[in-house]
Amino acid sequence: MNTDSHPFDAITPENLVERGSWKWTRFPGTLPGFVAEMDFPLAKPITEALSTSFDLQRFGYLPQPVAEELKEATADYVSRTHSWAIEPEQVYLSGDVLQAYEVVLRQLITPGSPIIVPTPAYMPFLTLTTALGHPVIEVPMLDGPDGRPEMDLPTIADHLAGEAELVVLCNPHNPLGLVYHHDELEALATVVDDAGGMVFSDEIHAPLVFGNHRHIPYATVSDQAAQHSITAISASKAWNLPGLKCSQLVVTSDRHKELLAPLSFIVSHGASTPGVVASIAAYRDGGPWLEDVKSYLSGNFDVLDDFATNHLPGSGYRRPEGTYITWFDARSIDIGTADSPADYLREHAGVSLTDGALCGEAGKGHLRLIAATPRPILMELLERIAPHWVRHN
Ligand SMILES: Cc1ncc(COP(=O)(O)O)c(C=O)c1O
Q1: Mutation test of ligand 1: which of 38, 204, 233 has the most ligand atoms closer than 8 Å to its C-beta?
Q2: In this predicted model, what pLDDT tens digit does every residue of 128-157 receive, in sequence order?
Q3: What's the confidence (pLDDT) of residue 145?
C-alpha cells in the first residue's frame, strides 16, 4: 500500500476553510467531498507564472500572442501525453468546459434535439442540457464483465435512429472513474457514424489516469470519430485551476470549424488572462507535480480499497481507473425520513457528499465522493460514514 507520509498530510480542515473555496464553505462544520477539485497547493511553475502576472498586473484582456502560446502548448501537450497530433489552429480557447458545451449545443446541432447522456453522469450534463432547451435521454450504463460498467450501445443506436443527434461522452468518466478502452470507443464511433450522429467528448480528466490505464482521445480512434466529434479539455481538473476559467475546445472536423467561425471571438473571450497563463505553465512544466499528485491519489485509493472492503458492505466500490472521483452504492444505509443518503449523512455523520440522484435516475441511492483530499481528512470522513453503513444480509 502506497501510504507513505507526504506534506499534503499536514493540511488541515482549518487551513482549507481559511482558503475559502465553495467546497469548504458551503456546508460549514462538515467534511466536504462533493466538489470535483483538489485540496492540495498549486504546482510551483503555476504559482510562479501567476505571481509574475500579479507583479506586472497582467489582468487586461487576453493578448493574441498569449492565446497563441496556449494553443501551441496544448497541441504539444496532447501530442506528448496522448500521442494526439493536432495543429494549434484546431484549438479554440473558452472559459470552461461547460461554456464550450453550450456553444456546441447552440451552434452545431438542431435546436431542441434530444441529447443522449449515459448515466450516472456529471450533473450539469442533465441540468444545463435541459436549461438550454434540449431534452435529455438518460441511457443507464450496463454492468459489463466483472461488474465494470459499459455503455448501452444498442439503446444509444436506437435513440440516434430517432431524433437524437448528439451523445455526451465523458472520458475519463465522472462519476464512475472509467477510462474507456480503444475497442469501447471504436464501438461507440461505429454506432454514431452509422447514424450520422455526433459526439461531445469531455476529456477534462484526461491527465488523471492511473496504473496501466491510458487515456485515448476519442477523436483518435478513427477518421470518422474525428469528423463527427468535438473535444473539450482543460488543465483545470489535473492542476486544480477551475476558478481561473480556461478550457480548450479541440475541433477536428472541417464542418465544425466552419460552423464555429462566427463565434470564435466570443468563445475565446471567456478564457481569463490568468487562466491562460496558468494553463500554459501547467501543460509545459506541470508534469512532475502531477506525477507526485497522482502517486498521492493512488495512496488514497489504496486506503479506499481497504476501507470499502472492510467497512462499506454492498457499496460496489470500484477503484477509479481515472479521475479522483469515487462512487458508492449507499442503499444499505437506513436513511429514515431523509430524502437521500447524502442528506442523511450530512445531518448524521457531518460529511457532505454528492447525492447520486443528481447524476441521473441510475444514480439514485448512490453517493459521489471526491477523493482528492489530504489522507487524514479522507480517513476521518470514512470513519464518520462507516457506522451508518449496515449489512442487511
Ligand atoms: C466531467 C466534467 N466535465 C466538466 C466539468 C466542469 O468543467 P468546467 O469548470 O471547465 O466547466 C467538470 C467539473 O467537475 C467535470 O468533472
Answers
A1: 204
A2: 999 999 999 999 999 998 889 999 999 999
A3: 86
**Residue nearest atom 4 of ligand 1, based on CA coordinates:** 97
Counting from 1 in the atom list of ligand 1, the atom nearest the Cα of 170 is 1
The domain made up of 7-43+287-388 has a fold known as Aspartate Aminotransferase, domain 1 (3.90.1150)
Q: Which residue, among 290, 284, 125, has the nearest Cα to 206 in the 3D structure?
A: 290
Write down the pLDDT at residue 266. Answer: 74
- Residue 393 confidence (pLDDT): 45
What local confidence, expressed as pLDDT, does residue 194 receive? 97
* Inter-axis angle of helices 273-285 and 64-82, nearest 10: 30
Query: In this structure, are residues 294 and 210 in contact, taking their beta carbons and an 8 Å threshold?
Result: yes
Q: Contact, 156 vs 191, CB < 8 A?
A: yes
Look at ligand 1, atom 1, and give the residue with the nearest C-alpha. Answer: 174
What's the mean pLDDT in 113-122?
98
Kindly report the pTM of this predicted structure. 0.97
Residue among 332, 307, 327 nearest 367 (CA) = 327
Q: 3-class DSSP state for residue 221?
A: coil
C-alpha 1 to ligand 1 mean position (Å): 30
DSSP letter for each residue of 127-148: HHHHHTT--EEEEEPEE-GGG-
Distance of CA 49 to CAs 55, 89, 274, Å?
10, 24, 9
CA of 99 to the centre of ligand 1 (A): 10
Contact (Cβ atoms closer than 8 angstroms) between residue 201 and residue 189: no
pLDDT value at 392 more than 60: no
Structural domain boundaries in the chain: 7-43+287-388, 61-285
Query: How does DSSP classify residue 163?
Result: T
β 31-32/351-352 pair status: parallel
CATH architecture of the domain formed by 61-285 = 3-Layer(aba) Sandwich (3.40)
At residue 268, the pLDDT reads 77
Top mutation candidate among 105, 237, 327 for ligand 1, by most atoms within 8 Å of CB: 237
Out of 21, 23, 98, mutate this one to test ligand 1's pocket (max ligand atoms within 8 Å of CB): namely: 98
